[in-house]
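Inputs:
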Amino acid sequence: MDEILEILSKDARITPEEIARLTKKDANDVKKAIKSYEKDGTIVKYKAIVNQDMIKDSKEWVRALIEVSITPQKDVGFENIAERIYNFPEVSSCYLVSGTYDLLVVVEGDSLHTVSSFISSKLAPMQNVRSTATHFLLKKYKEDGHIFKKSPQGKRLNISY
Amino acid sequence: MDFKLSKKVEELAPSGIRAFFDLVLGMKDVISLGVGEPDFVTPWNIREKAIYSLEQGYTSYTSNKGMVELRKHISVFLKKRHGIEYDPEEEILITVGVSEALDLAMRAIINPKDKVIIPDPSYVAYAADVDLAYGIPVRVATDIKHGFKLNPRVIDDAAKKGAKALLLNYPSNPTGASYSRKELEEIAKVIKKREMIIITDEVYDELTYDFEHTAFPRLKGMKEHVIYLNGFSKAYAMTGFRVGYACGPRKAISAMTKIHQYTMLCVPITAQMAASEALKNGFKSVQEMKREYKRRREYIVGALNEMGLPCHTPEGAFYVFPSIESTKESSGEFAKNLLLSQKVAVVPGTAFGKDYDGYVRIAYASSYDNLKEAAARIKKYLEKK
């Protein structure tokens, strides 16, 4: 992976000037590279990873992983049905997978009720959906490479040879 | 009772900056650029292997030389990575870090008053180890103008005056200086000509940024002259595991093993298990950490030079050794004042040799955010002066 992308994947807030300094590149070249990555969709968007558990005033937040089995359609396979599913705003992620089911769909909502009613009224009855198995997420340990448990810092001595 | 100590130990110079170290250790919320170890935690697969070995009941002694499996891994790794060949049975000894290996090497080769050349600025243990083995450390200075590199002529001069061995650390703690293959060949010529022993501490070898590291025994005709020391602390962020190793001619390793078996017996088995795993599956982590260090180096070298603390670009390790002469302070004063006013810790240059009062050692084994904040504080300190 290009070094610029590697650095941005770790910290999206870092400025092009800083990247230029860290990689000994010209700042304008870095800016150009980032622009081109944004344009061609290599960089999709910049967002913060929020730990929902830490938000005091947030409503309940529910996430479910749903295994969806589908009857593929002639010529288009899973594409059309996948599109119908991922276009719902409740769906935060949607993957085609190998194994005993076809689509892994991640659904989010502000209550158990919202999520389950989406599944029962929208997802499960959909034509070509053969079956669903829903797993409500109980605890997030790690996401996108980030571990949520705060690790105690500073185990090194403050000074040593 | 008058508790009579060994004269040798009594005369051994204590580190002059102990008081400063105590001051740092007593303060809170310090951004420390004074730490001589990686800021990364040991990669998980290595830690997990250590835990698993305990669960499996591996809690016994191992062979004095270290577990055969680990010695074999090291032998294969050295061949593949550096093109050097050592027999795991007779030419490799597992030690408690490079520190023990260094002590063993000194005790194995030194007769009273034998001279060992140490290029300054140098890691604090080198001169002390020579001294404790009843040898005489011959400290030779290197300077910022020449990138803190040792001039082969200086070795030749010292050899003419009877120096038996050279202790060379590259990449270096505290300067980060390292040597290209060509530069090492020049040193090798003198070693050959004067029939000297050379002990190389190459523990920072994986953290070489601008060229490929050349292991000294790789150089033509050098294997019989070298005691090669390396370890897991820096490359694999395993300082607390304390595992290093020495490779060298059968005669040297056998002598070192003799001392080791009476003093240390063996390296803790848990640490040896972890080291095995590091060699089997740890290389990707090493490369990731190296890339990160390199970026930090670009940042800190640029920042220091811009704020008027000139420094040579270190070729390796995670240290820079900037000159603070422009501040007109001694390195001790600079470090203490910077700590008290800005809460940034650095190590005074005098810790590494008496001629380096115009320098401090800055370790960039700290997160980029920390480095940025520390650089801003050092700048503020300089501006207030």
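The mean pLDDT of chain B is 96. Flag for discussion at group meeting.
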